[in-house]
Design goal:
The complex is a heterodimer of chains A (275) and B (366).
Chain A: E1 3-14, E2 17-28, E3 32-36, H1 43-51, E4 58-63, E5 66-67, H2 73-79, E6 80-83, H3 95-104, H4 112-125, H5 141-159, E7 167-171, H6 179-194, E8 198-202, H7 206-212, E9 215-220, E10 223-228, H8 230-233, H9 236-243, E11 249-251, E12 258-260
Helix pairs in contact in A: 3-4, 3-5, 4-5
Chain B: H1 2-44, H2 52-63, H3 72-107, H4 119-138, H5 141-144, H6 149-169, E1 170-171, E2 174-175, H7 177-201, H8 204-215, H9 223-239, H10 244-250, H11 254-259, H12 264-286, H13 292-304, H14 308-332, H15 341-359
Antiparallel strand pairs in B: 1-2
Helix pairs in contact in B: 1-3, 1-14, 2-3, 3-9, 3-12, 3-13, 3-14, 4-6, 4-7, 4-8, 4-12, 6-7, 6-12, 9-12, 10-14, 13-14, 14-15
Classes of the chains: A alpha/beta (275), B mainly alpha (366).
Chain lengths: 275, 366
C-alpha cells in the first residue's frame, strides 16, 4: 500500500484543552477514509492539522513522507484541495468567479482556454453548470456547497499536472445537500479516489459513511477510538459508547453493509434541547 | 465521457467569459473617455477661462520646448497652476480609490476604508500637531523648511499609526484582521479627540488652516510637491495589481486562501504597507479626502464584479477621474473662492452611499 498522507502522533492544544490528542493516521492512494464522531470530538480540528491550516502542537503530518510544514502554500495547493464547512463570500462573485478561484494558486501558467476547460469540467462534476452566471450569494445553501465542491475539483484538476498523488479533504460536504446530490457528491469523491487520490471526508450520516468509506475513523474526545472497514468497526457497542444512541444495526441484504434506522430504538439519556 | 459533457456545457462558460470581457472593455472605455474629458475641463476652467485649443497649443509648445511667446500669462496658468493641480488630483484620486479597494479586500468588508484603520486619523493628528504646535516647538525654522513640514508630519503620522496597529494585531506571526479593525477604530477615536484638543488650543489662523486641511484640498499643487509624491505613489499604483489574485482568494477567508495556495501573511503585509504608504502620501499632499475610497470601488463592483484583477486598475482610473471632477466643482461653484474638496466628495459620496445601502436590501452587505 502506498502511503500518501500520514499523521504521526499529531495533537493540538488550545485554551488549555487537548482538542486532538495523539492521532496516528495513514491514508493510501485510492483510499476513501471517512472520519465520524460526535459534536466536539475534534473532527474539524484534526482535518485542519491534516491540511496544514493549523500547525500541530505535538507530532507532525506528512505528505509523501515529507513534513508539510516545509512545503510552500503553492506546493500544498497543488497537492491537496480542501472543502471546508460553510464559507461565506463578502462580495458579489459569480459562480464562475468562485470556481475559477480554485485555479488561482495552482494553474498560473495556463492559457485562457485551458483554464476555461478546467472550469467547465469542474462545474459539470458538481452539476452546477446551469448556475455559472448566477450571483453566488443569492444561491441556496446546498447550491453554494456544490459550487464550492466544483471549485475544489477545479483545484485538484489544475494540480494534477505537477502532483500525481493528490489528497482531497471534505469537511461535511453533504451537510445541506438533497439526497440525490449527497449521493452524487459522494460518487464524485469515490471517483477521485479511484483516480488514485486519497480522500478524507468528515460525515455525520453514519449510513452514508458506511456505504462509501473504505475505512472509518471514529473520533471521540480528540482521540481515535477505532478505525477500520465499516463492517468491522460499526457495531452496537460503538454506537452506544461513542454516539450515545441505542440503535439497532442491520445489514443491507444486497451489499452486506451495516445500516441503521433512527426509529429502530430509543436513545440512552436523550439530551434535553428545550429549556 | 467527461469530454462529451464538457462540449455540451462548453459554449455557456465561454459565452459568459467573453460577455464579461466585453463588459469590462466597455466600462474601461467609458472611464478613459471620462478621464480625458475631466482632464480637459480641469485645464480649461477656473478664474480665467481658456479655450481647449489654446490649452492644447500651450501643452504642445511646452512638450516640444518652444517658448510660448504668444501668451506668456496663459502659458504660466496652464503649466504652473492647472497642470500640476491636475496631475496631483489624478495621483491622489487613484491612490485613494485603490487604497479603499485594497482595504475592503483585506478586511473582506465593503465598508472598509483607510480612514477605518486609523491611518487617515493618525496622519490627520500629526498634521494638526504640525499646524498648531509647529511654531511653538520649532520656532521660525519651520517657515524656512521647504514645503515639507506639514506633509512629512502627515506621512509619518500615518505610517506610525499603521505600524502600531500592526504590532497590536500580530501575534506569533499572524495578523488578525479583526483585531486590527477594532484597534483601528480605537486609535481613530483617540487621534480624533487629540485633534479636537489641538483645535481647542489653536488660534484663529491655525484653526482655519486646520479646517481647510482636514477637509482636503488640491490647492497649492506645485511641481516640487509632485516630485515628492509621485515617486511614492506611482510605484505603488504599478505594484498593486500583483496583489489581485491573493485578494481574490482572501474573499473566502484566510484559511481558504491558504488552501488555494496563497501566501496569506505575505499578501496581508504587502497590502497593509502599500495602503499606509499610499494614504500617508496622499493625505500629506492633499489633506484628508473622504469617500473616494468607498464610492469608487463600490460603484465599479456593481458593473464589473469583484475580481480584483479588473477592479484594482479600474479603481485607479475612475478614482483619478472622480477626484479631478470633484476638484472642478470645488473651484467653480463659489469662484473666485474655493471649497475644500472634501466637502464636494462627501456631498456627492454620502448620498450615493446611502442609496447603495438602500438598494442592497435584498443582499447581505457582509
Amino acid at each position: 500500500m502506498s502511503e500518501v498522507l500520514r499523521a504521526s502522533d499529531a495533537g493540538y492544544d488550545a485554551g488549555g484543552r487537548r482538542l486532538v490528542d495523539g492521532c496516528n493516521l495513514c491514508v493510501a492512494a485510492g483510499e476513501l477514509v471517512v472520519v465520524v464522531g460526535p459534536n466536539g470530538a475534534g473532527k474539524t480540528t484534526l482535518l485542519r492539522l491534516l491540511t496544514g491550516e493549523t500547525r500541530p502542537t505535538r507530532g507532525a503530518v506528512f505528505y509523501d513522507r515529507r513534513n508539510i510544514e516545509s512545503m510552500s502554500p503553492a506546493r500544498l495547493a497543488a497537492k491537496r484541495a480542501v472543502m471546508a464547512q460553510a464559507q461565506t463570500l463578502s462580495f458579489p462573485f459569480t459562480v464562475l468567479d468562485v470556481v475559477r478561484l480554485g485555479l488561482d494558486g495552482v494553474g498560473r501558467a495556463e492559457t485562457r482556454l485551458q483554464r476555461e476547460r478546467r472550469v467547465e469540467r469542474a462545474l459539470c462534476s458538481a452539476d452546477v453548470t446551469h448556475l455559472a452566471g448566477r450571483d453566488f450569494q443569492l444561491l441556496s445553501g446546498g447550491e453554494q456547497q456544490r459550487v464550492h465542491f466544483a471549485r475544489v475539483m477545479a483545484q485538484l484538476d489544475a494540480g494534477r499536472g505537477s502532483e500525481k498523488r493528490q489528497i482531497l479533504f471534505l469537511d461535511e460536504p453533504v451537510a445541506s445537500l438533497d439526497l440525490c446530490h449527497q449521493l452524487a457528491l459522494m460518487d464524485a469523491a469515490r471517483a477521485v479516489a479511484a483516480d488514485g487520490a486519497a480522500v478524507v471526508a468528515i460525515l455525520h450520516d453514519l449510513n452514508l459513511a458506511a456505504s462509501y468509506a473504505d475505512r472509518l475513523v471514529i473520533l471521540q474526545a480528540g482521540r481515535i477510538a477505532a478505525q477500520g472497514p465499516p463492517r468491522a468497526v460499526l457495531d452496537q457497542r460503538l454506537l452506544h459508547d461513542v454516539f450515545k444512541v441505542d440503535l439497532k444495526l442491520e445489514s443491507c441484504a444486497r451489499t452486506g453493509l451495516p445500516f441503521m434506522l433512527p426509529q429502530s430504538h430509543g436513545r440512552i439519556q436523550p439530551p434535553v434541547l428545550s429549556q | 465521457m467527461t469530454d462529451a459533457v464538457a462540449d455540451f456545457a462548453g459554449p455557456s462558460v465561454r459565452h459568459l467569459a467573453s460577455q464579461r470581457r466585453w463588459r469590462i472593455s466597455i466600462v474601461t472605455g467609458c472611464i478613459l473617455v471620462g478621464l480625458v474629458c475631466v482632464s480637459l475641463g480641469s485645464l480649461t476652467s477656473g478664474a480665467v477661462r481658456l479655450p481647449a485649443s489654446q490649452v492644447f497649443q500651450t501643452l504642445m509648445d511646452a512638450a516640444f520646448g518652444r517658448g510660448a511667446a504668444a501668451n506668456a500669462q496663459d502659458a504660466l496658468i496652464v503649466m504652473q497652476i492647472r497642470l500640476p493641480r491636475l496631475v496631483l488630483g489624478l495621483l491622489v484620486g487613484a491612490a485613494l480609490a485603490v487604497s479603499g479597494a485594497l482595504m475592503q479586500g483585506l478586511f473582506r468588508n465593503p465598508l472598509a476604508d483607510p480612514g477605518l484603520v486609523g491611518v487617515s486619523s493618525g496622519a490627520g493628528l500629526a498634521a494638526a500637531a504640525t499646524i498648531v504646535l509647529g511654531h511653538r516647538l520649532l520656532g521660525d525654522t519651520i517657515t524656512k523648511l521647504p514645503f515639507a513640514a506639514l506633509p512629512a508630519g502627515a506621512f509619518l503620522g500615518g505610517l506610525a499609526t499603521t505600524i502600531v496597529l500592526y504590532v497590536i494585531a500580530t501575534r506569533r506571526g499572524r495578523t488578525s484582521i479583526a483585531t486590527m479593525l477594532l484597534g483601528g477604530v480605537a486609535i481613530g477615536a483617540l487621534a480624533g479627540s487629540l485633534t479636537g484638543l489641538l483645535a481647542y488650543a489653536s488660534d484663529d489662523t491655525q484653526l482655519r488652516d486646520l479646517t481647510f486641511w482636514s477637509l482636503g484640498a488640491l490647492t497649492g499643487a506645485t511641481w516640487s510637491k509632485i516630485a515628492v509624491i509621485a515617486p511614492i505613489l506611482l510605484p505603488i499604483l504599478i505594484a498593486v495589481p500583483m496583489l489581485a489574485r491573493g485578494l481574490n482568494g482572501l474573499m473566502m477567508g484566510e484559511a481558504e486562501a491558504y488552501h488555494l495556495g496563497i501566501s496569506v501573511q505575505r499578501i496581508k503585509r504587502a497590502t497593509i504597507l502599500l495602503v499606509a504608504l499610499a494614504t500617508g502620501a496622499s493625505v500629506a499632499a492633499a489633506g484628508v479626502i473622504g469617500f473616494v475610497g468607498i464610492v469608487v470601488p463600490h460603484m465599479l463592483r456593481l458593473v464589473v464584479g469583484s475580481d480584483h484583477r479588473v477592479l484594482l486598475p479600474l479603481c485607479g482610473l475612475a478614482g483619478a477621474a472622480l477626484l479631478c471632477g470633484a476638484d472642478i466643482v470645488a473651484r467653480t461653484v463659489v469662484a473666485p473662492a474655493e471649497l475644500p474638496i472634501g466637502i464636494v466628495t462627501a456631498a456627492i459620496g454620502a448620498p450615493f452611499f446611502l442609496w447603495l445601502l438602500l438598494r442592497q436590501t435584498g443582499r447581505p452587505i457582509t
